[in-house]
Structure formats: structure tokens, C-alpha cells
Amino acid sequence: MEIPAVNLKAIVFVHWLLTIWGCMASWLPSSYAWGNFTVLALAVWAIVQRDSVDAVLMFLVGMVMTMLMDIIHFGIFYPLADNLTDRTRDTFRFSVGMAILSLLLKPVSCFFVYQMYRERGGDYNVNFGFPGVSRNRDAYQSIDQQDQPVGLANPFGQAEDGKPMSY
């Protein structure tokens, strides 16, 4: 089954709109907006530079980080809606719903952004900085047994019996 290609502009637009709607009520701190809009700025960089692997990787890492930060923000700053009027209660519910929807869509967006990262040539391999040691020596050429090209096998033009070769 082939994964459908999703436009990066559509991902950015959806998350931008949901972040705007999530910030409508003043229940979230400004760090929520700053974090999400900074990551969306990285996405704009990834849109502008179509061949940049770094831009897509930074957007992907930023999306993962904002997922964690959104969970922390929601856990700490979600207030009780007991003292809200009907109008502010509706705005609050809408704002919370859009912020939660944005959080729920982020893993799906990360999946599609990772596919774009792979399409642009990115390959994430875990490397902890330890050099690997391999016993496979098939790729090495022995110094004693070098393959010589035909023209260099007899550089002085002599036959094997020591007499000059006639052409």
C-alpha cells in the first residue's frame, strides 16, 4: 500500500489555523503560541527551500517537541470552567477543542513530514559516536595480489623470455 503524498503547505495551514483557534481564549500561556508559531516558521523554511533536508528535519523535531510541550501546557493550565459565563464558556470549549485537535493531528503530520524527509534524501541512523569494528575484509584489496591492467602487465614491451616483442 502506497502512502499518499500530503502537501507541506496543507499541514502548515491546518496547524496554523488550529493554533490560532487554540489561542482564542486566554487559558494558555504565551509560550504555547511562541512554541507552535516558531515550529510553523521552520515549516515555512522547509516550504521555501524544497531541497533542504535540514529544514524538514528541524520542522519534524520541532513538531515532536511541541507535542510534549502541548501536553505539559494542557496539564498545567487547564482551568476549571465553573465561573465562566455562557459566552465565555463556549469560546473556552471551542479553544480547548481546537488545541486538543491540533495535538491529536501532530503525530499524523509528523508521519507525513517524515516521509517528506525521506523523499528529500534524509536518512536518520542512530549513531552514538562509537566507531564500529567489522571483521569483514572483502572490501579491501590485498597489497600482495593487485589486479594489473593488461597494458601495465609488461611495461617495457619484452616477451617473457627476455627478448623484445615485435609489433
Computed structural class: mainly alpha
Q: What Rg, in angstroms, do the CA atoms define?
A: 30 Å
Q: What is the tally of helical segments? A: 5
- How many β-strand stretches? 0
Average pLDDT for all residues:
81
Note down, in words, how this protein is organized.
The chain has 167 residues and is mostly helical. Helix content is 58%, strand content 0%. The protein contains 5 helices and no strands. The chain has helices spanning 8-22, 30-48, 53-77, 86-119, 150-153.
Q: What's the quick description here?
A:
The protein is an all-alpha fold and 167 residues long. It contains 5 helices and no strands.
Descriptors:
167 residues, mainly alpha, 58% helix, 0% strand
How is the topology of this model organized?
Elements: H1 8-22, H2 30-48, H3 53-77, H4 86-119, H5 150-153
Helix pairs in contact: 1-2, 1-4, 2-3, 3-4
